[in-house]
Amino acid sequence: MTKNVTNFLSPEERRERRMILLLLAPALAVVGLLLIGPLIWMGWQSFQGPDGFTLDHYARFLSDTVYLSSFVQTFRIAFVVTIAALLLGYPIAYVAAKSQGIWPPIILGMVLLPFWTSVLVRAYAWLILLQRRGLVNTMLIETGVIDKPLILVNNEFGTVMATLHILLPFMVLPLYATMKKIPAELEMAGASLGGGGWLVFRSVFLPLSLPGVIAGSVLVFVLTLGFYITPELLGGGRTFLVSMLVSRNIELYNEWGAASSISMVLLLLVFLIFRLASMLIPFERIMGTR
C-alpha cells in the first residue's frame, strides 16, 4: 500500500520526503546511540551472571525483602510528592492563567526560580533549614510553639519536602499550559445559565483541565521514582529508594546484572504508568493536539 502511494507522489514530494529523512537522520542516530543502545545493553546485562545466562537477578525480587521494601517506599514517596505537588500547583497555575498584565510572567518566574540553582545546592539548603538547629526548628522554639527540636530530616518528611520543592514546576507548567487553552466563553456560558462560581468551576473548568492534571502528575511521579541526590542527603539512611538500591549494587558489590534488573523492572513499571495514563486520557489530549 505504501509503495503504491509513493508511486503517485510527484518528484517534488519525493525530494521533500528524502530531505525530511536526511534531516531526521542525525537525531535518530543520537537516539539510537544514547538511548536505545544502552537500553538493549542493560536488558542483556540483567540476564547475565558469572556462568552466563541466569534469572537469579530477577528471582531476588521474590526472595529479598530489601528489593520489595525499596520499591514500596519509592512509590509511596512518589505518590505523596505527586499529590502534594497537585494540591499546591493547581491553585498557582489557576491564578497565573486567570491573571492579566505582568502577573502571569511574575508568578511563573517565581515558580521557575529554583531552576537557577542546581539540585545539589537546593538539597543542601533544605538540609540546613530542617536540621535540629536549623532555621525552622529555631524559629518554632523561640516562638514557643515547641519545646524541643522536631525531627524534620533523615526521614521521609525531609525527602518529600525537598523533592516537592524541586519538582513543583513540572506540575505547574503543564497545568498552566492546559488552563490557558480553556476558552473563557465556556465559563461565561455556564454562568449565564445560572451556575455559581463553584458550580461552573467544578462542571466546566475542572474537567477541561484534566489533561494538564494527568500530564503534570505523571511527570512528577515518574521523575520522583528516579530521584537520587535528594533522598541520599535528606533521607539519612532511613529513606532507601530504588535509585539508591541500583547505586549500592554497583558501588559496593559491583553487581551490574542486579542493578540492570532493578532498572529494567522500574522501566517496565514506568511504561505501565504511561499506559494507564493514556487509558484515562489519550496522549493527543494531553499534548493538546486534539
Automatic annotation (TrEMBL):
It holds the Pfam family BPD_transp_1. InterPro entries: MetI-like, MetI-like_sf. Residues 71-277 form the ABC transmembrane type-1 domain. The keyword Repeat does not apply. The chain crosses the membrane at residues 20-44, 77-97, 106-129, 157-178, 199-229, 256-277. One of its GO terms (cellular component) is plasma membrane. It is a multi-pass membrane protein. PROSITE patterns: ABC_TM1. Keywords: Cell membrane, Membrane, Transmembrane, Transmembrane helix, Transport. GO terms for biological process: transmembrane transport. Belongs to the binding-protein-dependent transport system permease family. CysTW subfamily. PANTHER family: ABC TRANSPORTER PERMEASE PROTEIN (PTHR42929:SF5), INNER MEMBRANE ABC TRANSPORTER PERMEASE PROTEIN YDCU-RELATED-RELATED (PTHR42929). This is ABC transporter permease subunit. It comes from Paracoccus litorisediminis.
